[in-house]
Write a structure and sequence with these properties.
single chain; 391 residues; alpha/beta; Rossmann fold; binds magnesium ion
């Protein structure tokens, strides 16, 4: 029986994790659940999964949850950052880090410092604090099991191989909705067009990031730290069908790939069951029916965000956090109609260059350094975008 603590239990990854728990009750038990504000869904999860401990964002929500549960329900209810940390270090064999954004950083680090293995879906953890997290992982001997589809693919292609034999990691990329668009067409793209992702149904922030290829850039950063490989050993190839989820090349020229139909339950199941595999009820890949798989090089001129990620990795340990924060802000402004689509990349480049020019922190000593880099980048991006809007 594997005991799971789930950070972000009412989000998309949390719910799909719990659906796997429900399908395999003899293998998994959810012992602690951290939600944010969705009290209705959390109350339902408490009734179905009987965790020892849950947490919500605020005291008012804790009262509301208590009222929704049976009077004698024994579940402990905690609140806020303290609640997240308690769930992260609760008695569990694996912590599923399924929160979205910077809020997941602190509890995930707490889980690692408590020696818990982590199934990581919260990509900002590695993007913002990869260097720090990697050092903590090594110090505490914990395993990080990636839940992102590309990183799960790489993880699967690395199992059983010697690290010294690896020559290159190749991340696949759908190319997003603007793959075949000209530079002028991209410059005039509407929010609605940017939100139309061809293969995956995701939230608005990550969908915009897929259109700009910033998402792939963030995944390059994630891969660099997750697998502890230098950035020049991480490559990207565009593959519009999203059937090959990523590949690893070895020094004898062999390339291993992981394939499947796009379904997040697969990487979740891989992370939960490793080193075993569970008989998951998902649609099967029929290559004859797919017929054709296409690949092309990413166009770094039409999609400059990709190279910004490599530039950040080459700069210093804080630069990825700077790029991530600048991008979050710019995407928000784009979604609100404040800038045209190319403004996202332009703002990101300006903020990253300003960070490099100011000679910021070369190493991330602790979370305070990450928080500082993040806040500085947001302020810098806000200033740049305001100037841009009034120009
Ligand atoms: Mg991905």
């Amino acid at each position: 029986m594997k005991r799971l603590a789930i950070l972000g239990s009412t989000g998309s990854v949390g719910e799909q994790t719990l659906s796997v728990v429900e399908e395999f009750p003899e293998r998994y038990r959810a012992t602690a659940l951290a939600a944010g504000r969705n009290v209705d869904k959390l109350a339902d999860q408490v009734r179905r999964f009987r965790p020892d401990l849950v947490s919500v964002a605020e005291p008012g929500l804790a009262d509301e949850l208590r009222r929704k549960l049976a009077v004698n329900d024994p579940v402990a209810i905690l609140v806020g950052a303290e609640g997240l940390d308690a769930v992260a270090v609760h008695d569990a064999d694996l912590v599923v880090a399924g929160l979205v954004g910077a809020v997941g950083l602190r509890p995930t680090l707490a889980a690692i410092r408590a020696g818990r293995d982590v199934a990581l879906a919260n990509k900002e953890v590695m993007v913002m604090a990869g260097a720090l997290v990697l050092r903590e992982m090594k110090a505490h001997g914990v395993d990080l099991l990636p839940v992102d589809s590309e990183h799960s693919a790489i993880f699967q292609c690395l199992v059983g191989q010697r690290r010294e034999d690896l020559s290159r990691i190749i991340l696949t990329c759908s190319g997003g909705p603007f793959r075949t668009w000209s530079e002028d067409e991209i410059a005039a793209a509407t929010v609605k067009e940017a939100l139309a992702h061809p293969n995956w149904d995701m939230g608005p922030k990550i969908t915009i990031d897929s259109a700009s290829l910033m998402n792939k850039g963030l995944e390059v950063i994630e891969a660099r730290w997750l697998f502890d490989v230098p950035p020049e050993q991480v490559d990207v190839v565009v593959h519009p069908q999203s059937i090959v989820h990523s590949l690893v090349e070895y020094r004898d020229g062999s390339v291993l790939a992981q394939l499947g139909l796009p379904d997040m339950r697969v990487p979740i199941a891989v992370a939960l069951a490793h080193p075993e595999r569970i008989p998951l009820d998902v649609p099967r890949l029929d290559l004859a029916q797919v017929g054709q798989l296409d690949f092309e090089a990413p166009d770094r001129k039409r999609f400059p965000c990709l190279d910004l990620a490599y530039a950040a990795l080459r700069a210093d340990e804080a630069a990825p956090a700077v790029l991530n924060a600048a991008n979050e802000l710019a995407v928000g402004v784009f979604l609100d109609g404040g800038i045209a689509f190319p403004g996202i990349a332009a703002s990101n480049a300006a903020v990253l260059n300003a960070h490099i020019a100011r000679g910021g922190a070369a190493t991330l000593r602790d979370l305070t350094d990450v928080v500082e880099a993040d806040a500085w980048a947001r302020a810098c991006a806000r200033e740049w975008l305001t100037k841009e809007a009034s120009a």
